[in-house]
Amino acid sequence: MLILALDTATENGSLALAAADRLLAEFSLHSPGTYLQHLLPGVEELLRVAGRSLQELEAIAVSQGPGNFTGLRIGLATAKGLAWALGCPLVAVSTLEALAAQFPCQTQPTAVIMDAKRQEVYLGLFRCPAELPQALAEPQRLPLAALPARLKPPLLLTGPGLNAYGDFLNQRLSPEITWAAPAKRHPRAATIARLGRLRLEQGQTLAPPLLVPTYLRPAL
User: Is 219 a domain residue?
Assistant: First the structure.
């Protein structure tokens, strides 16, 4: 099955094309301010590089959030439009879950932190003993000051929120907590494609009108 995956939840967006469990191509899309201009041309270029056509797509997977409001709206609108036009299945993947899934086969829990702005963070807690992360709690939006009390070893820490609040957390967390390498702290469309394939196999699809962003806070 040929799957197109879109991730526009953070400033480091990406696109991926996968067939079954094989990644065919992946592109980076930096800066949410350019998604509107470059997302669809990026899809066209991705297909061209992979030697595929838009009509060959059999499913669309998209990062649902939480994350950047504007980026999420553009990404989801694009995914819904493509799924509607092509008549193919649409699957949504939690951005927090996708970040945890980038560390499969972990013996310790994984905490995913994203910057929610205004000195707040989004927090997701997972176990990831295999490909598919298992949520340990509902995702939360909480004040940055309340975060250190939620993070106890053994723990793997990841997510773009570490880049924003690394100094604050480094002074307050146990040295026994493992920090993900900076290069692996952002979601990847390749991971969205992988999780999307698993959801497709489980029949977890959405009709385009039912797909809405996960904000964890009201949009202004």
Answer: no
Q: Tens digits of per-residue pLDDT, 111-168?
A: 999 999 999 999 999 999 988 899 999 999 999 999 999 999 999 999 999 999 999 9
Tens digits of residue pLDDT in 127-139: 999 888 999 999 9
Residues 6+ positions from 155 with CB-CB distance below 8 Å: 108, 109, 110, 111, 177, 178
pTM equals 0.94
What domain range is 89 assigned to?
2-94+187-210
163 sits in which H/E element: helix 161-170
CATH number at residue 8: 3.30.420.40
Q: Which of 30, 31, 5 is nearest to 19 (CA)?
A: 5
Residues 6 or more apart whose Cβ sits within 8 Å of residue 150: 111, 123, 125, 142
- Say yes or no: 103 and 150 in one domain: yes
